[in-house]
Amino acid sequence: MTADGGPAGRSTPGARSPRIGASGRVRQGICPTVASGRRRGRRARKGQSMSTTMTFSAPTPTRSVRAVAAVAVAAALAVLAPVAQARNVKLMESVPDTLRVSRAHEILGDLDLRFGGESGRDAQVVRHDVVVTGTGSTSLNDVGEDDKVRPSDHDLCARAFEDAITQLAFAARGVHATAIVGVVSAYEGTLFDDPGHFECHAGAIKAYVTLRAQLAVSVPVVSPPPVPVYAPPPPVDEPAPAPSPTFQPLPPAPAPTPN
Predict the structure, then answer these.
(1) CB–CB of 108/173 below 8 Å?
(2) Does 60 map to a domain?
(3) What span, in angstroms and rounded, lies between the C-alpha atoms of 210 and 129?
(4) CB-hemisphere CA count at 13 Å for 75?
(5) How many domains is the chain partitioned into structurally?
């Protein structure tokens, strides 16, 4: 018999029997859980078959594989980079011709532009040795649209020249200068002083023009060179006319002697 008068049941191995506390209540013992190794699941309905779905994940590359791939990409970039940067064509472009085909006149406005180191002599300079680098690329109208056909080196140089003049104009207006004088080419620090030409370097897709200038507020007035006056050549004495030939009549033939 149990404590509550009920029939005594069969004891379960490992289970604790109920205990009676001080208040007379029955306190249930804790039955430890024993792992059976089975999982409960929902029974398949009649007519349904049990199917097992197996998912295979892609193998994760090891460190060695990733290292080899990184080395291969770096080697490919190292080979292709010199090829893209190998072209460097040096050109000597005409200043008047480039000013005519570019927008430099519109950009300069009332600013005076003078090429040649001697053009800055006796000028009141407010900022010395301003160096700018203009870039000419294959984009049109500053909207990033690439040309369908690559422009010529002369066109790229004209765009680079225009960009350099734009930077000089902004710098001049920033210090209230009225003239950009003493302009010379200074590609990679090497000076090229020519009043009529500037140096340009064209690559595969871009061209570069580096200019060094002096920004001045007062420049001497350049008077046009005097027109040389040539004296008329002295008159050339005309030679005396040759005397007309005189013809003398031939003497008459002697009369025949009678026999």
Answers:
(1) no
(2) no
(3) 12
(4) 6
(5) 1
- First-residue to last-residue Cα distance in the chain: 216
pLDDT (tens digit, 9 = 90+) per residue, 148-204? 778 899 999 999 999 999 999 999 999 999 999 999 999 999 999 999 999 999 998
Geometric angle at alpha carbon 79, from 73 and 80, rounded to 5°: 90
Whole-model pTM: value is: 0.54
What does the alpha-carbon distance between residue 155 and residue 69 come to, in Å, rounded to a whole number? 41
Give the separation between CA 64 and CA 23, rounded to whole angstroms.
Answer: 72
Q: Cβ–Cβ contacts within 10 Å for residue 187, how many?
A: 17
Structural domain boundaries, residue 126: 89-218
In a domain, 53, yes or no: no
**DSSP state letter for 195:** T
Q: Does residue 107 fall inside a structural domain?
A: yes
Q: Rounded distance, CA 28 to CA 15, Å?
A: 10
Contact 108, 165 (CB under 8 A): yes
